[in-house]
Structure formats: structure tokens, C-alpha cells
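Might you be able to review the protein record set out just below?
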Amino acid sequence: MLELRQQGFHVVTSGEAEYTLTYWIDESWKRGKIVVSDREGTWANPRDADTRLPSLPPFFGPPRPYYERSLGMQHVLEVPYETKGIRLKLFHQASMRAGQMQTAWDGYIEGGDRVSEKREPVLVRTLLNYFGTDFVGRAKLVADPPNNQ
């Protein structure tokens, strides 16, 4: 509501409204690529791995084993990952009264793996900058600094 008012929108009760705006955090899935190795790591004694290790004082106790990762054949896998964003949907009030829920405008901005309370106002503000327009693509989340010439 605060962002709507700051952008100059006049927010009224539902009885007076020409439109109804809905807001929710949208969860969806995308596909991405990761690199995996076909070899498992092994547990090893550090003294076996490197004879140049200095001797440790007695209060450190005996050397502990560590996990040694050995690279084998690597493969690129395509995997799904979750992404979240903010969706705004605007409905004509007349269509809602008629039970048709006709969409007047639909906007979405991706926020990554989560939409934090800190980033939410910036995401909403950016999305509202495109309010009422058709746009598909990437938008800057931060405005360019003023030109000091």
C-alpha cells in the first residue's frame, strides 16, 4: 500500500474502486546446469597425504582424518531449482462483480531463491514502474547514479 501511494495511486475502499489489485509471492521452477563428478571423495590421514606437515604439539592430539575430494570425469547436469518473485494482478471491478475476473494487467518480477522483507519494497517499486505497460525482459533494480557533469 505504501509503494502504491508513493507512486501516486489513489487507494480507495473496494466499494469505490474501479480495479482490484492482488499481490502475492509467486513460486516457480526453472532449469539450470551444475557440474558433478562421478568419483566419490575419500577419507585420508593428513600425514599420508603430505609428509611435509609440521609435527603438532601434544595438546592438539593425534592428527584427524580429513575428506579428500578427487576429481574424476565431470558431467553437466540440468536440474530444476526454485525461484520466487512478486506477482501483481489487476482486475476490472465490473468483471469481478459479474464473476468473470477479467485481468486488466499482470506483472511479475523475479526475486531469486527468496523474496526478503528488505528487497520486497525495491522489487514492488520496480514492478510498479512498468505498471500498465507490456514488457518482457530484464529490468535494472537500481537506477543509474546521477550524471555529475
User: Anything to note?
Assistant: Confidence is low (pLDDT under 50) at residues 49-53. The chain is about 15% helix and 35% strand. The beta strands are 19-37, 42-44, 66-68, 74-92, 103-112. The radius of gyration is 27 Å.
